């Protein structure tokens, strides 16, 4: 198996509400003709939104998961100041700020917000991570 992630799919309770939220963040939808699923191209990978019940059925698991999912998505910024800007944009789009931006123990600056389905997003500036023009990240050796 090659070392990569191609697509992250979030199982959402209300597909249209989630689509509108991400579009309010300024994200542009891909594959506009796709029905029952929403795609956003995110650099070298993609984020998709899919009805939670249908995603659970497809994976043959129960759909009633609650609380912390055991993972967080991350949006890395190019500057420390951009962390505050992105958190404010997310809140204005309908997100709940879970943790205001603050100095991080690892030397950066970060905070968290939750989307309408409670998926946690870390917004972080890490002085050791360079972002390419397209937003892709390279983890140093």
Features:
4-stranded mixed sheet; 2,3-Dihydroxybiphenyl 1,2-Dioxygenase, domain 1; 10 strands; 141 residues; 22% helix; alpha+beta; 3 helices; 2 domains
Q: Could you give the order of strands across the largest sheet?
A: 1-4-3-2
If you average the pLDDT, what whole number results? 90
Major sheet characteristics = 4 strands, mixed
CATH class of the largest domain: Alpha Beta
**Whole-number radius of gyration?**
16 Å
- Number of distinct helices: 3
Per CATH, the architecture of the largest domain is Roll
CATH superfamily membership of the largest domain, which one? 2,3-Dihydroxybiphenyl 1,2-Dioxygenase, domain 1
Q: How many domains?
A: 2
User: Could you say which overall geometry the principal axes of the C-alpha atoms support?
Assistant: globular
Structural class: alpha+beta
Proportion in helices = 10-25%
Residue fraction in strands: 25-35%
CATH topology (fold) name of the largest domain: 2,3-Dihydroxybiphenyl 1,2-Dioxygenase, domain 1
Number of strands: 10
Structure description:
The chain has 141 residues and is α+β, with helices and mostly antiparallel strands. It has helices at residues 15-24, 52-59, 80-92, and strands at 7-12, 29-30, 38-42, 45-51, 73-76, 96-103, 109-114, 120-125, 130-131, 137-138. It has 3 helices and 10 strands. The strands form 3 sheets. Strands 1-4-3-2 form a 4-stranded mixed sheet. The protein has a 4-stranded mixed sheet with strand order 5-8-7-6, covered by helices on one side. Strands 9-10 form a two-stranded antiparallel sheet. It is globular and about 40 Å long. The two termini are 21 Å apart. The mean pLDDT is 90.
């Amino acid at each position: 198996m090659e070392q990569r992630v191609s697509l992250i799919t979030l199982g959402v309770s209300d597909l249209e509400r989630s689509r509108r939220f991400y579009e309010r963040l300024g994200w542009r939808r891909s594959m506009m003709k796709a029905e029952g699923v929403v795609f956003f191209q995110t650099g070298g990978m993609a984020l998709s939104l899919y009805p939670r019940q249908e995603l659970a059925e497809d994976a043959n698991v129960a759909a009633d998961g609650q609380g912390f999912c055991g993972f967080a998505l991350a949006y890395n910024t190019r500057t420390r100041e951009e962390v505050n800007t992105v958190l404010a944009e997310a809140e204005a789009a309908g997100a709940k700020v879970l943790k205001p931006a603050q100095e991080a123990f690892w030397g950066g600056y970060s905070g968290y917000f939750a989307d309408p389905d409670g998926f946690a997003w870390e917004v972080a500036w890490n002085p050791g991570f360079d972002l390419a023009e397209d937003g892709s990240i390279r983890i140093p050796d």
